Prior knowledge:
With 740 residues, this protein is α+β, with helices and mostly antiparallel strands. It has 24 helices and 25 strands. Strand 16 (593-594) and strand 17 form a beta hairpin. The two termini are 23 Å apart.
Amino acid sequence: MLKLLKGIFIGIAYIIAGLSGATVAVLLKVYNELLDACASIVKAPFKVIKKSWKLLFGIILGLVIGVITIEKLYSIAPLPISMLFSGIVIAGIPPIFLMIKNEKKQFKNYIIFIFAFILVLALPFLFKSENKVLNISLSTGIILTLFGFVTSTSLVVPGISGSMILASAGYYEPILKILTNLLEKVLKFKFNEIGTNLFVFFTFAIGLGLGVVLIANLMKKLLATHKSQMDYAILGLVSASSISIIVAVLKDSNHRESITTTTWLIGVGALFIGLILGWLFYRMDNKERKVDFLKESKNYEKEFIKSTVELLKYKTVLEKYNENSNEPFGHENKEALDYLAKMAKRDGFKVKNVDNYAMHIEFGTGTELLGILGHIDIVPANGAWNTDPFNPVIKDNRIYARGAVDDKGPVMAAYYALRLIKDLDLPVNKRIRLIIGCDEESGNRCLRHYFKSEELPGMGFSPDANYPLIYGEKAFQNFDLTGKLLNNSSIISFYSGDRRNIVPDTARAIIKVDLEKEYLLYLKENNYKGEVKDGQYFAYGKSCHGMSPEEGLNAAFILIDFLNKYCPCEFTNFICKYFTFDPYGEKLGINIFNEDMKNLSLNCGVFKIEDNTFEINVDCRIPNNEYFDFIKKRVDMAVSKYIGIEYKMHDRVMMHYVDPNSVLVKTLMNAYQEISGDKTSKPMTIGGGTYAKFIPNAVAFGPMFPNSPDVIHQPNEYLEIDEYVKNIAIYAKSIYELVK
């Protein structure tokens, strides 16, 4: 009902000389919805009508009411009517000022404000022409179409009064009288008497429709590319409107005789009533809205499924990084970014792609920025899949595909959370950015590049872990072991793993001696899985994320342990002494423990031996920032005891920690508990590394619920559709609570 009432006021405002329908839309906080509707009505009419029918119907009703009543009211009391709306406008100026007061102060913004203010004040002084006579002719039709186009600005540009423009050219009262006469004849079914009236209506309406669509699209682009400048311009336009409404009446010679002391007194009363009405509208809009986020999120289930399936089709596995290319992380990553950008632009968001390293999707206003950080790159689809990992399959209310949970599904859930907030037109006082990277699984080069040029959010979260919330992430000290095999080695080749942060589930080797019987017996005695096939020795373990290697079984360790027992060499002895079956680094003497951050973890994720040269990629996650040098010394000590083995330490990644009693953590926890009903699960720390580390005041938040199977980086990865509808609700409520 409130939306319908707002539409009526906008429609009436369009008729009043000196007042802009868009001005009233800004004051009533439906300007963005009105702009979206006007810009998209031709491309997606059914979607626009479904979403904004109350507002649009109200505008049409307001136009009808305005056409029927304004001519009579203006002829009786033009000043009080104008002062009534002036009061409404004045009451709406402080909220607009408060909305932009925290924006960056720039001299050019003040100039834009002054220019917009003066422009609107000058419009009433264009009233010079006498009323025109309208008839059916080509020239009249062209003129009316042109003025329809020009006066369409009233619906989409705040402060610019289409009625005043018509009045300045002498067409306002003639067109208003004809439209009034047309409505009266239609209501009386006198269709044979509407010839001239219908001609005026259609020629004017054609120009009006074209203008609304074209100018609305222009305004959307300006608001997307020059948000701060447009906000100041709108403030100037609206502020001056409160004066120009009254000046328009005083300057119009047709109304001077009706302006008396009495009408001034009535006008003051009307101004006061307008102030009250404007204040009431403000109070109704800012009253705490009760939103059932879970119910609303279900409206996006079909769209979420469709969009997620499309995104999952892109094989965004990093094969080679090329910093000098327009596709630094490969063609598929670029294509996936393009897909997301196209979708976001279609839905009215501001989009920026930073050199195909990362992109953001943004909406909202203000200087403060909330960041939601996700990624679309994925790990290889190794292991035994029951379906094609890059041809998503929907089965048993699940979507099966690589990246479904890590992290494409969560990215789409966050996106539809933004859509929900935007579509409901919930009031936000901060900017919100969904930042999407392409290199989370292989080094985070994407966001390091992105934040060289883009603003760092003041707070945020990454939907790339577990619920209820992760406020601490271990430090990283990854390293590589390299060297030459000595002559006593029987290994010809050895391969296992693709990523240092994944426990490899397959290992294969070719050796110089025949140990098939011994190997099969070894497997049986230790209850391991493996085989000898075509002269190659295979071992099969259990894959899992490298942050918790204790949950998997490293296939390389099985094979190396066997080789060290039956054909030992310097290399196998070194690996068995310091690494095999040791997820906590006890053999190296680095088994560090912290009460809050828990155990150090150690994962040998990649083994490669060929041409008597070996390379091992090790993932080490540390529960304290103080132990980097200690770990380096222990690795150095172990390597120094063996001939031909070297190591290289990679860049250190510091531990990430946010106070669990902070406003951010409490807000997110409250949203999670309200939507999920889970009041017992506590926030935690993990060994995993998420994008949250890029923002000092950011945490990892979902999407996996407690007790849900962990299928990240594993074959047959899937997301539960019902859980992700709930994720949309949790993220939407969380974002809204942080930015309202």
